[in-house]
């Protein structure tokens, strides 16, 4: 699992990346009440907003940690947005993206580096 400074995570399985927000981000947002995930077929570029998460505190964009084509949005979050709080780095994923440039993952942080980054905030 790799992380961005915007608190997204990505897990690569072959050429498909599963993407979500970190536990830190979910905890900071508080109770998630709405999630808008991208439709399959949507092209995304690294750093582009591709999803929205709303909580009782704020609405936030979710940014693509990698470029590629969305192969699946997590439709289950539409009826159960609280899954993002309950399991942000598991069942609370936002999208699966067919990665167009796997080398983009090289610039992301591993868990230890992300934890160290959180310590600087």
Automatic annotation (TrEMBL):
One of its Pfam families is GCV_H
Cofactor(s) for this UniProt protein: (R)-lipoate
- Would you identify the family this protein belongs to, as annotated? Belongs to the GcvH family.
What name does this protein carry? Glycine cleavage system H protein
Q: How does it assemble?
A: The glycine cleavage system is composed of four proteins: P, T, L and H.
Q: What PROSITE patterns does the record point to?
A: BIOTINYL_LIPOYL (PS50968), LIPOYL (PS00189)
Cofactor annotation remark: Binds 1 lipoyl cofactor covalently.
Q: What is the taxonomic lineage of the source species? A: Bacteria, Pseudomonadati, Pseudomonadota, Alphaproteobacteria, Caulobacterales
Residue intervals of the Lipoyl-binding domain: 16-98
Q: Which UniProt keywords apply?
A: Lipoyl
InterPro entries (alphabetical): 2-oxoA_DH_lipoyl-BS, Biotin_lipoyl, GCV_H, GCV_H/Fam206, GCV_H_sub, Single_hybrid_motif
- Residues with PTM N6-lipoyllysine: 57
- Give the organism, scientific name: Brevundimonas kwangchunensis
Q: This protein's superkingdom? A: Bacteria
* Gene name for this UniProt entry: gcvH
Function as written in the Swiss-Prot or TrEMBL entry: The glycine cleavage system catalyzes the degradation of glycine. The H protein shuttles the methylamine group of glycine from the P protein to the T protein.
């Amino acid at each position: 699992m790799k992380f961005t400074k915007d608190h997204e995570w990505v897990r690569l399985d072959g050429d498909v990346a599963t993407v979500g927000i970190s536990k830190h981000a979910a905890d900071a947002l508080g109770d998630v009440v709405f999630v808008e995930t991208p439709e399959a077929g949507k092209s995304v570029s690294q750093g582009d907003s591709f999803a929205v998460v709303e909580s009782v505190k704020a609405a936030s964009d979710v940014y693509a940690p990698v470029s590629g084509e969305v192969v699946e949005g997590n439709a289950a979050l539409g009826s159960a947005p609280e899954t993002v709080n309950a399991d942000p780095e598991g069942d609370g994923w936002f999208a699966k993206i067919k990665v167009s440039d796997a080398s983009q993952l090289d610039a992301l942080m591993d868990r230890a580096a992300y934890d160290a980054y959180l310590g600087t905030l």
